[in-house]
Amino acid sequence: MTNLNAQTQVGQFVTEHPCVARIFEKFGIDYCCGGRQPLSSACEARGVNIEEVLSDISKALQSPPEKDLQKLTLAELADHIVALHHQYLRDTLPLLSKQVDRVAMVHGPGRPELLEVRRIFREFTAEMMDHMEKEEQILFPLIAGRSGPVGCSLSHIIEAMEAEHDSAGQALAKMRELTRNYDIPEGACTTYRAVLQGLAELEQDTHIHVHAENHILFPRAIAASRN
Ligand SMILES: [Fe+2]
Ligand SMILES: [Fe+2]
Predict the structure, then answer these.
(1) Could you tell me if 40 and 120 lie in one domain?
(2) Of 202, 91, 123, 70, residue with least CA distance to 131
(3) Same domain flag for 83 and 174
(4) Dist. CA 142 → ligand 1 center (Å)
(5) For the chain, which terminus, N or C, has the lower number of CB atoms within 10 Å?
(6) Each residue's pLDDT tens digit in the chain (227 positions)?
(7) How many angstroms separate the alpha carbon of residue 213 from the centre of ligand 2?
(8) Distance from the CA of 101 to the center of ligand 2, in angstroms?
(9) Which candidate, 157, 92, 102, places its Cα nearest to that of 125?
(10) What range does the domain containing 100 cover?
């Protein structure tokens, strides 16, 4: 690892090496909304051994590099986010939503936390669908140079999107807490398992999605608008 150490911000690790996202997920380290904290503080907050994390990162970096988002133009990066992460949400949320409803209805009486998961999931889904529309209709065309001024400054729109990312991150963290880290109970039915696995995957994809926007796309768009 060159220049990456315990004092490096966790978001920076993932910006330089996207494959590190999977390692942070494994240790429960928040690299998207909490991406500006140094690795040492993030490990301390989660009670994980920093040496173990650094050793995993070091091993991962010996593998061949993944698609480097930094090399894409702003338009290509916005298109990549839409094609990969927005599409993932549009493909996943409708079915997962039905499964969450079903599990809450069947198991809710014995496990009231599942009713709370359903409430948060519904809110998350509605907010994310609306959020993606705003990015695709207003922000991304502006960033990609495909639309003219929209009567509101770029930094203002970005701040609003980042606040919505924080809210999505909090919803996911709450669902993780309510399901005790997506722990599959003994004898859980197929739908219950699918919900827990689906929520874990949703959290992972959303973290990578928000990271790409908060730490790569948005700062580069702001820098470009000042030139
Ligand atoms: Fe997005
Ligand atoms: Fe976003």
Answers:
(1) no
(2) 123
(3) yes
(4) 14
(5) C
(6) 457 899 999 988 888 887 788 788 888 888 888 889 999 999 999 999 999 999 988 877 776 555 678 889 999 999 999 999 999 999 999 999 999 999 999 999 999 999 999 999 999 999 999 999 999 999 999 999 988 777 789 999 999 999 999 999 999 999 999 999 999 988 888 899 999 999 999 999 999 999 999 999 999 999 999 87
(7) 6
(8) 25
(9) 92
(10) 71-226
Q: Are 21 and 207 in contact (CB under 8 A)?
A: yes
How many residues can be counted in the chain?
A: 227
The rounded Å distance from CA 210 to ligand 1 centre is: 7
Of all residues in the chain, the percent with pLDDT exceeding 90 is 69
Query: In the chain, how many domains are there?
Result: 2
**Among 216, 219, 211, CA closest to 21:** 211
Distance of CA 127 to the CA centre of its chain: 14
Using the mean position of ligand 1's atoms as its centre, give its distance from the Cα of residue 50 in Å: 30
Give the separation between CA 123 and CA 113, rounded to whole angstroms: 16
Residues 21, 118 share a domain? no
* C-alpha–C-alpha distance, residues 88 and 72, integer Å: 20
Scan for tokens 């949320």, then name that residue. Answer: 93
Cα of 153 from ligand 1 centre, angstroms: 19
